[in-house]
């Protein structure tokens, strides 16, 4: 089964979680559970784009440096105040940037192009230059008319979305609940973090790595712990979790078909539907997934890099879709190979890479040793480079697809 | 003052906040407050890269398909278990991926290249092919020697960092405290989110937008509210905040030199040091900042886009440095202009843009109307395009610098 087929199968099983309402200040990074329309045009009044004077351009029809026009300033209009007077022939109003343009006026002339004169207790503005009708006035609805769809359900709420929601009066926002993702580890070689190191053993890093990946994808990780080596107890634990309020269950390790691979055994015997247990890809070919009563169970590899890649390719899109995201592609970007890729691949390979730009061109190069057991190079990677099957490798400069990782291109 | 000069001035004033310790599961996205070294080599034992048999390659020196060698399997070595026996002449051990290679063995031969025979109660593995010494064994320290610096203070903790920290036994992690950033708004035109709309007024969107930008930069926003229009009360409020536990104070609005610009007045009269009150840039030229007893106060523009740009260029790097980040450049990326840029700029312009790749090339194009009052286009933007001063504009295809925004290139 190809990566694309496996992902399509999974996404057919993932239904968005229910919606909850949160304060706008807590909505950053969440996904909208409803679309948002404008109730009023934006702007909803004629807005001045400058500090200056609201004028009738017909009053300035014959103005020039030799023949300036003088208009009486009848009002000062700060932001947030509705003008009291209409501008009639020979009149003007002082106006601030963002303030409401009074009726009768059809342009705002920049303060710097005017001269203010006090004469017999009256304020007079002297103007020596014409302006076109409409100058420095943002018309009603220029940005959006009433009833415009401005945000769609499933969009991730960034700073710009937050500004829009605030300006439309959303102090609370409907968002999808964060999917709860249970994390289980297998492997008698795993030490807890606080255990002293022992010969032949390693500390459980995959569970914590997955917890970070789950947070980055918008989920809520639940570190459950270790699956017992004893099959009946392991089975009981898995069914208990499948029946729990977790939206997804992710296990790491025990999926290859070897002597001690308890997840491979479980997927052979369970009551759920195994969607796939082998993917045409490296690393992570034994990545397994299945569905039990509409709940997805993932068996990711125990090798750190294979586990990482399996999550990014299969679990991340599911978590996104559970939050209403429209996931219809692998979210790839194209760029150029920075170095020759010389390996022979019978299957597509997802290589940890570093993506950068130089002189307008974008490049990606593999980082660290491309071993699925390698752990240090995981932190250098800001993308996965997708290397198609090849008998010859690819020369530097060839176009490749990459999958950007969390925080790519920013530090 | 140029953007670069202003940023350099600010970064000289920003000292990292103190360190706190958090659980590893809560460390994602925080910045390390100490560097991390390996205490043991990685791996700390000779690790098998395959399911197979640990052998002495000298035993296979003359092997071929016609003359296979048979070795006695003296032990099964699962992951996490220290081997009991040394491999001597004529012996082998069954071994799992990730398990510890026993003494005496110098290669692991893949299971698929062998045949297991049970004979007179003994397990015999039959091998028909040579392997080179070292095959499928990861030597001690291959990834890192003991005492290797693997993570540096100030690095943002991503999923890869989390895996490394876990594997080194960090159940708790020293990180920099999240800087507290107080947000204040000015402007009598501002309605609260729950207020009904009124003619001439707008809702306070900048404060919420800034709160999202602060979270994205790693800070902790504090929405303080509105600065009073009354100068003595405004001044009191600002000094109270400057004396509070906020690490930074950001205000929006009131910085141009107009009739009602209270922040401009404050920066003229205050006891602090004004670092700059005019920047050679658009939008956001009136962006102001100063320092009072080592605390920075920012006066950002009240225009949504100018406020957004002012934050990204000046406040974000300060928040990052307060968390120990090494900020020594504008974190720009280069790509190609997708369309002609026809405007004349006397000053560098930071244009909201959309950045994308197509056929290996990366492009950026302006989004929405390039008006600093525009709000809807803020959500389309995934970068700021840096347009240098120009009398002629720039043709499509020219190389430009862009500043990626939070979530750029991922949805």
TrEMBL record, chains A, B:
Cofactor(s) required for function per UniProt: Mg(2+)
- Provide the top EC class: transferase
The metabolic or biological pathway listed in the UniProt record of this protein is:
Cofactor biosynthesis; molybdopterin biosynthesis
Q: Where is the MoaB/Mog domain?
A: 182-321
Please give the Pfam families that the UniProt record associates with this protein: MoCF_biosynth (PF00994), MoeA_C (PF03454), MoeA_N (PF03453)
User: Which superkingdom, per the lineage?
Assistant: Bacteria
Family matches, as InterPro entries: MoaB/Mog-like_dom_sf, MoaB/Mog_dom, MoeA-like, MoeA_C_domain_IV, MoeA_C_domain_IV_sf, MoeA_linker/N, MoeA_linker/N_sf
* Keywords, comma-separated and alphabetical: Magnesium, Metal-binding, Molybdenum, Molybdenum cofactor biosynthesis, Transferase
Which reactions does this protein catalyse? adenylyl-molybdopterin + molybdate = Mo-molybdopterin + AMP + H(+)
Task: Identify the CDD domains for this entry.
Answer: MoeA (cd00887)
EC number per UniProt: 2.10.1.1
Function text = Catalyzes the insertion of molybdate into adenylated molybdopterin with the concomitant release of AMP.
Q: Which family does it belong to?
A: Belongs to the MoeA family.
User: Which named protein is this?
Assistant: Molybdopterin molybdenumtransferase
